[in-house]
Amino acid sequence: MPNIAILGSTGSIGRMTLEVCASLGPEYRVVALAAGRQADLLARQAAETGASAVAVCDEESAADLRRALSGGATPEVLVGSDGLAALASRDDVDIVVSAVAGSAGLPAALATVRAGKRLALANKEALVMAGDLVMAEAKRGGAEVIPVDSEHSAIFQAMGCGRAEEVSRIVLTASGGPFYRLPAEARQHVTAAEALDHPTWSMGRKITIDSATLMNKSLEVIEAHHLFGIAAEKICVLIHPESTVHSLVEFVDGSCLAQLGPPDMRMPIQYALTWPERRPAPWPRLDLATLGGLHFEVPDTERFPALRLGFEVIRQGGTSGAALSGADEVAVEAFLDGRLRFVDIVPLVQRVLAAHQNVVAPSLDDILAADAWAREEASRCLTSYTLSR
Fold first, then answer.
1. Are residues 38 and 127 in the same domain?
2. For 212, which of 115, 150, 177, 247 could close a Cys bridge (C-beta 3.0–4.6 Å)?
3. Does residue 275 belong to any structural domain of this protein?
4. Which domain holds residue 203?
């Protein structure tokens, strides 16, 4: 009977994970939950699951949470990144679902693998920032890192059909987001509401904007490099607007093995929880007869230059991933707040990455310092974009 901690339980992936656990039945027990500042929702989730521990990001949210919990469930309340890491490494936790947005998930991911637990990873920034460190600690601690991202789950499943040395390349598919066909002039005036209207997936705000710029695919390229030990030249991206082929692996004999399914994150979430087994699930099935067709094309990196950045980060290594991740978080937040145009998100990130002084063999402190520097630099550079346009 695996005990599960869900980090980011009030977000999109967290809520779906709770749904998956309920569907799997009492064998899969949710014993710990963490969220940012949504104290009321977290309190309801704690009451519904009977979680013995909960965590929030700061003391103000912890006070709100304790008030929301009064008269009901009385789990232990933990605070901040230390609290998140402590939650992940508890003795009564077997599987940690890491769905905390952005760099905040890194300390907890490290705590999970160091404790030898299964890390069901939906937070790609942990590997973008510190992939070498996380995977080395996982190997040292005997931990399992199972991807929750639909693309990486697809690759993980396909790679089970061969050995790593038999892989010729992996192909990450991308929907293209809502603006792939939009003329350049029209993209100058994109609003946050338009960018958040993804054509196939229902996701959190940050990842939805990253999908619109195709930055998300750059982050996934870096994640795939670390997860599967695949060189950058063996990773490619194809635009696939139907979002049915979630990704595929090509082997040295020319065989291509793909994983297909509806655009529903509950499927990879469940697989990460039940692996190496598969369990029955009530989610909608893929009806091949009604698909009509599957389309693929090479992405236009001139129109969407974010796609090149993931390969550049793999080439540079070191703290470059932390710089990319930190700058992108600031740029996306600025766009959502109306302080930056959509078309300026990627140029701002490129500018920060170009100014970054890379540390080639970084410690965790170096990685966190690079993330902090990138956020500060991106915030400083924002003025030149917002005032001159």
1. yes
2. 177
3. no
4. 152-262+285-388
CB 246 within 8 A of CB 150: yes
- Do 95 and 211 belong together in one domain? no
305 prior amide bond cis, ω within 30: no
How far, in Å, CA of 118 to CA of 95, rounded?
Answer: 5
DSSP secondary structure letters along 201-255 = ----HHHHHHHHHTHHHHHHHHHHHHHHT--GGGEEEEE-TT--EEEEEEETTS-
Average pLDDT over residues 177-201: 84
Give residue-wise pLDDT tens across range 71-82.
766 899 999 999
pTM of the model: 0.94
Q: Which residues sit opposite 247 in a β-bridge?
A: 172, 259
Same domain, 192 and 73: no
3-state DSSP assignment of residue 299: coil
- 268 assigned to some structural domain: no
| pLDDT tens by residue, 142-162 | 999 999 999 999 999 999 999
Same domain (yes/no): 205, 141 = no
How are beta strands 95-98 and 76-79 bridged, if at all? unpaired
Lowest mean pLDDT among 61-75, 217-231, 269-283: 61-75
Q: What is the pLDDT of residue 72?
A: 66
Torsions phi, psi for 319 (to 5 deg): -95, 10
**110 and 133 belong to one structural domain:** yes
